Amino acid sequence: MMLRMTNNENDTALHEAVRYNHPDVVKLLILEDPDFIYGANFSGGTPLYMAAERGFHDLVQIIIDNTPASPAHSGLMGRTVLHAAVICNNEDMMKKILEWKSDLTKEVDNDGWSPLHCAAYLGYTSIVRQLLEKCDQSVVYLRVKNEHNKTALHIAASCGHIDVVKLLVSQYPDCCEQVDDNGNNALHLIMIKRGIFHSSGLLNFPWMNFRGLMNEKNVEGKTPLHLLADYQMFNCRSFMEHKMVDKMVLDNENSTPMDIMLSAEDLYGEKGPILGRLETAKASIGPLGWQKVIKQDNGGRRRKKGEQVSLIKKAAKIHLIVATLIATVTFAAGFTVPSVYDDQKKGEDQGLTVLAPPPSDGSIDRRGWGPSSNLGFFFFVITDMVALLLSSSAVLAYFLMALNHNVELVRKLINMGYVFTYTALLVMLLAFLFGIISGFSL
């Protein structure tokens, strides 16, 4: 029959009618051949799955109500029509599918994800509630192997979906006792998600509020309080001060939560307040904590000093270029003095520069330094010499800096070099000014 013919993508006429959302055509095609089970196309989608995937609730209802035999419901990556409805977050579609085939709650895709796992991951609380009403208890304990064997509760906790966590815990309290492959329970995973525990109200749940869960260790020996210190969660005062929480518990490295907090870097600017709250909660350093803090503190100081020296020397390279340029300019200016030449001179004065106009009484020595000598030229020579001396001193300071690694000495040298360079620049500008004045006076 023509209705069963497929195209190059293995799509039938019903696939195409579903794809483009034509309810009347979908119903007509099904009624024309009600006994035919439409399989999946090359993309893995059956007509029913495609309708759910696209959120076409009316098409899902038409296919289910008008197919005498159970329609195929498989889809991409081994998912079912229920997976697709969960991902679409369509409660009406969910209700219809669960009334039709509630056993789909147990089906998992190629990665081991059930519809409940998907809803927990996406944080769809109402969808989770619908699934819990129709599924067996065993579905709550299904694990996703490629996600370290996490249950739906673990996934919701890892994603920070507190409302889903509360719903699962309230209906299946014993699921709190489950741990993943890393030994993390729900509290461990919530602690990893910074900032959500304070307003979660989880400690008000009796099953989340008992000694074993609060102090349970994962494979690294860390309790939820260790992770609180690891991730520097400031807004967890109620948990820190809870009477059931062991503040002196040791992990596999013999560290208490206080040890971890003391040796950690201040990532969010909250290290001080967290330490204060731990102290208020009577937390203290462990038996080996003093040694670890001292060693890590010394190592951190050495790294910090090394970084400081590196940054100072990097800045000094730019300063050195400026100082070298000033030294070069002032050195050259000492030979190219501002003056004019008198070609009329004879004998030993021939070729000498005229540095000042002759005095009115005619008394002048051969170098132009008489009673009315050019003061502009005099100050030019002095300022040029001073600028050359200062810039050379700055170059020397930067050279000595390259040979030292002591942060205090390096800091003093760069400050000294900066002062020399800055002053040499100002004096060089004065020399330029006096040179201009001297040249115009001639």
Helix and strand arrangement:
Elements: H1 13-19, H2 23-32, H3 47-53, H4 57-66, H5 81-88, H6 91-100, H7 115-122, H8 125-134, H9 137-140, H10 152-159, H11 162-171, H12 186-192, H13 211-214, H14 224-230, H15 237-240, H16 257-263, H17 271-280, H18 289-333, E1 340-341, E2 353-354, H19 375-402, H20 407-441
Antiparallel strand pairs: 1-2
Helix pairs in contact: 1-2, 1-3, 2-4, 3-4, 3-5, 4-6, 5-6, 5-7, 6-8, 7-8, 7-10, 8-11, 10-11, 10-12, 12-14, 14-16, 16-18, 18-19, 18-20, 19-20
What characteristic shape results from the CA principal axes?
Answer: elongated
Q: What share of the residues lie within helices?
A: 40-55%
Q: How do the strands line up in the largest sheet? A: 1-2
Order of helices and strands: HHHHHHHHHHHHHHHHHHEEHH
The CATH topology of the largest domain corresponds to Serine Threonine Protein Phosphatase 5, Tetratricopeptide repeat
The fraction of residues in strands falls at: under 5%
Counting structural domains, the number is 2
What is the β-strand count? 2
Query: How many angstroms separate the termini?
Result: 113 Å
Largest sheet: 2 strands, antiparallel
For the record, what CATH class of the largest domain applies? Mainly Alpha
What's the overall average pLDDT, rounded? 82
Low-confidence stretches: 356-360, 364-373
Instruction: Tell me the radius of gyration.
Output: 42 Å
* Fourth-level CATH superfamily of the largest domain: Ankyrin repeat-containing domain
CATH architecture descriptor text of the largest domain: Alpha Horseshoe
Secondary-structure-derived class: mainly alpha
